[in-house]
Automatic annotation (TrEMBL):
It holds the Pfam family PIG-L. GO terms for molecular function: hydrolase activity, acting on carbon-nitrogen (but not peptide) bonds, in linear amides. InterPro entries: GlcNAc_PI_deacetylase-related, LmbE-like_dom_sf. This is PIG-L family deacetylase.
Length: 237
């Protein structure tokens, strides 16, 4: 095994999200790609997603059974994406925004210190959409600043909105555009692992080739602290 490969094998990525499925639906291709390239990936899911509105199709879950089912689905998704460690904070779904912000940031900062990641991924505290997303993104950003470790912080973004970042007040320099075309099978498998959330989406269950054609070739991330002026998208963390 060559030196560069060994170095690469030591690289670490910490993703801090809110719900089971955030990792697969938003950036499953990128996680699968980095796992395949030797990154040691740790995923934090703040909640177990027990307040999800989708209960299977036809519905077979209820509020009592949902948390365990979604945790199991998340474990299966981690398996297909190559995520090695899964940490569940056990915060009640839809209540992340009501958690003590300082305490939550402290918990994440401890993880950053322990893991010493090269890459931290989370939601943008404003563009995250769902209140749980924004809250975990805000706490992770605060934790990243507090920990003062090496490594870089990136925000996940939805779909291909950041293919034209100027529209949202960002420069191309701040955007990382990851080509995930070789990892779409893993991404589709992760979608299917989250069965109770995807059963209502007929396209997910079409024959593979048709389902795969629904995915974009790229996933986009915003760098928290872009430094170098550049005109084009970067293509790696
Ligand atoms: Zn979510």
């Amino acid at each position: 095994m060559s030196e560069p490969h060994q170095d690469r094998a030591k690289r670490k990525l910490l993703a801090v999200f809110a719900h089971p499925d955030d990792e697969s639906f938003i950036c499953g291709g990128t996680l699968a790609k980095h796992a395949a390239e030797g990154y040691d990936i740790t995923l934090v899911s703040a909640t177990r997603g027990e307040m999800g509105r989708r209960m299977g199709n036809p519905p077979y879950l209820n509020r009592e059974t949902m948390a365990a089912a979604r945790e199991q689905e998340l474990r299966e998704a981690c398996e297909v994406l190559g995520i090695r460690q899964l940490i569940l904070f056990g915060i009640r779904d839809k209540t992340v925004e009501f958690m003590d912000e300082d305490g939550l940031a402290g918990r994440i900062a401890s993880l950053i210190e322990e893991i010493d990641p090269d890459v931290v991924l989370t939601f943008h505290e404003v563009m995250g959409g769902h209140p749980d997303h924004c809250a975990i993104g805000k706490a992770t950003t605060a934790a990243y600043r507090r920990a003062e470790r090496r490594g870089s912080l990136y925000f996940i973004t939805f779909g291909d909105a950041m293919s034209r970042p100027e529209r949202y007040g960002h420069t191309r320099n701040a955007v990382v555009k990851i080509d995930v075309s070789a990892y779409l099978e893993a991404k589709l498998a992760a979608f299917r692992a989250h069965r109770c959330q995807t059963e209502m989406d007929e396209w997910v269950w079409l024959p593979d080739r048709e389902a795969l054609s629904r995915f974009g070739r790229h996933e986009y991330f915003l760098q928290a602290d872009p430094i170098l002026p550049a005109r084009e998208f970067r293509d790696s963390f």
